[in-house]
Amino acid sequence: MAVSSSSSAFTPKPTRLGFSDRSIGSECFRSVSFPSRFHSLKSLESTRQVQSSKLGVIVRAESTSEKMKVDISLSPRVNSVKPSKTVAITDQATALAQAGVPVIRLAAGEPDFDTPAVIAEAGINAIREGYTRYTPNAEENGLSYTSDEILVSNGAKQSILQAVLAVCSPGDEAIHLNCQHDGNLKSRSPPPCVIIPAPFWVSYPEMARLADATPVILPTLISDNFLLDPKLLESKLTEKSRLLILCSPSNPTGSVYSRKLLEEIAQIVARHPRLLVLSDEIYEHIIYAPATHTSFAALPGMWERTLTVNGFSKAFAMTGWRLGYVAGPKHFVAACGKIQSQFTSGASSIAQKAAVAALGMGYAGGEAVATMVKAFRERRDFLVKSFGELEGVKISEPQGAFYLFLDFSSYYGAEAEGFGVIENSDFLCRYLLDKAQVALVPGDAFGDDKCIRISYAASLSTLHAAVERIKKAIVPLKPPVPV
Asked: Are 195 and 216 in contact (CB under 8 A)?
């Protein structure tokens, strides 16, 4: 069904931006509203009215369903999952831009570069040569895998979810567990724990919940560059701890785990027979010297218990191609394959041909990727210097990826004229979208409400404009918290 994008279809809706999620009964709703000043943004209701002739059929069908009292309840598993805040904010910012509002969008984690020509050409040739049929579920970093130890999926996100589903299962025995869980479980033990250092990628906890597992969040400190403290990890592990998720370089912080720190973590993992590690290495090639990447599975004794996830979206600017993979012991990968065989089957044949070309570009993507990384580093350096000039802002300089995770908590409690009190990261991002017209992601989406995430997957000129707007909006606020 086509939707008109003309500006005449937009209708004023005087509400303020909101990022909140709320639960009502057994159903989950996402609140989406916008600042009153953005009068050109059309509402969802007016969008429906544009196609009244088509939607009238749908409305009548819904009315019939209501008379029949159709059960519209959803699975408790689905109701336990929160919508992605990064997706919600990106959609809101896109809608504002389409409505003519000059919003600078720094919320999405998507490179602003085109897919390298050699990769795109390989995809085009795959189509021309008829490589368009089903594909089977099909050495780097000192690691070696056979074909039955690798599963290619429709993006790294699918690979991660399938891995979590494959290895996590509710326990039957009553065991004391000192981690939080929902419900009052008496005769059965709590579900297995998935250990997740915070700040974390927004999807990790929700994937754990989809697998009937309990996400156990371990906080980190900006003074430690948001890296997991091995002592804290060891103190939180129990017999029900099943999976530790590590992401290096990290989304949202850009932190990179050194080999020494990973070795300390590996020694702890080795003392827990049931504990596996999911190593998310999707940003592996976007790293800034002198930092170096270490694959967790390459550490002594860790290959047998590590599921390594990677993909092509970030380093090769292939977000729309949807291709990722998991590599690990055959037993676990086969389980992931079983899920995928009943879910999506094989990944796109065309994208796989393009990926082969990407892998042939040389170590770490060769010159094309090196050019992108150089640009990302220049942008990082500019942002670190610029925000370092703002009073009360704490910074951990990213060593990889393309995100800056800034601590703005010293401004919480400040009152903004015409807006109100900046209570937390959500309010701050609302204020910046309203006042500065810059879309950022609140830190509470990543498990740390003190911070906000800025994606610098945008041109340097765009970032200059964004910083100018943010500073203009922030400077009038006087930090109420002594710094």
From this structure: yes
Candidate from 39-48, 209-218, 295-304, 459-468 with smallest mean pLDDT: 39-48
Question: Looking at the DSSP assignment, which residues form a beta bridge with residue 326?
Answer: 151, 309
- Give the residue-averaged pLDDT of 145-155: 94
The C-alpha atoms of residue 2 and residue 25 are separated, in whole angstroms, by 33
Residue 404: its H or E element:
strand 403-407
162 Cβ neighbours under 8 A, 6+ residues apart: 151, 153, 326, 336, 339, 340, 343
Strand intervals (E) in 159-234: 193-198, 214-219
Per-residue DSSP letter, 115: P
H helices within 271-409, ranges in order? 330-341, 349-359, 366-388
Exposed e or buried b per residue across 68-93, where buried means at least 16 C-beta atoms within 10 angstroms of its C-beta = eeeeeeeeeeeeebeebbbebbbebb
Q: Which two tokens stand for residue 258?
A: 């050194």
pLDDT of residue 56: 42
Name the token pair of 412: 């919480």
Q: Compute the half-sphere exposure of residue 322: CA atoms within 13 Å on the CB side of its CA.
A: 9
What residue has token string 């190593």?
A: 279
Structure tokens at 28: 């989950």
Q: Which two tokens stand for residue 244?
A: 């530790």
Q: Contact 312/321 with Cβ under 8 angstroms?
A: yes
Give the total residue count for the chain: 483
